Amino acid sequence: MVAGVSLACMSGCGEARDYTVPHSACGIQVTPSSLEPLLPPGEEIDDEEKLELREYQQRCSLKVDGLEALRIRGDVITTDMHPFEVERRRLENSGNPSPAHVGQAGRIADDQIITYVPCTFQLSSEKKPAERRYVLDLYAATDTPENVDERREALVELAKSLLPKAKKEMGCSKT
């Protein structure tokens, strides 16, 4: 169970949120009000253990009643890679991709936001840090909120809140 502030909330269909909205997502501090709009009603929320697939990739999910509600991905990539091209199909499948004013550049879709910022990062196999990009990818796995414009706005606000903290957590420094 994740610690946080108790917010009893009713969704559009009248179901109650009986769990506490957390103060963190995947070990990164957030304000509960930035997470709350994207979390569906239910009884229990779990912050799935953060996975570090490689030293430059992290994955984590928030689950409500055992079902994924929000997926958080962080990646450090080279500056010649363009995350919107790499994830073009996922953005298109998420619905209506358009620019988002988050980070250096961002793309928002109905269920997903991808944004990136420049960073300096050193792989363990390298002798010195290199200029790279930190990419944050948030995916709303439920239709919460039901209103797509509100969901898109909530994803943008959460990305703005998480991006600088997630970049730092990954070990990226400012460029």
Tell me the major beta sheet. Answer: 8 strands, antiparallel
Average predicted confidence as pLDDT? 87
Q: What is the total number of structural domains?
A: 1
Strand content: 35-45%
- Rg, nearest Å: 16 Å
First and last CA, distance: 37 Å
Spell out the helices and strands N to C. EEEEEEHEEEEHHEEEEH
Structural class per helix/strand content?
alpha+beta
Compute the number of strand runs. Answer: 14
Oligomer: single chain
Task: Explain what this protein looks like in three dimensions.
This protein has 175 residues and is an alpha+beta fold. The protein has one domain (48-170). Helix content is 22%, strand content 39%. It contains four helices and 14 strands. The strands form four sheets. Strands 7, 8, 9, 10, 11, 12, 13 and 14 form an eight-stranded antiparallel sheet that branches. Strand 12 (105-108) and strand 13 form a beta hairpin. The longest helix is centred in the last third of the chain and has 23 residues, at 148-170. 38% of the residues are buried.
Short description:
By secondary structure, the chain is an alpha+beta fold. The chain has helices at residues 32-35, 83-86, 88-94, 148-170, and strands at residues 4-6, 9-10, 16-17, 20-22, 24-25, 28-29, 45-47, 51-54, 57-64, 67-78, 98-100, 105-108, 112-121, 130-140.
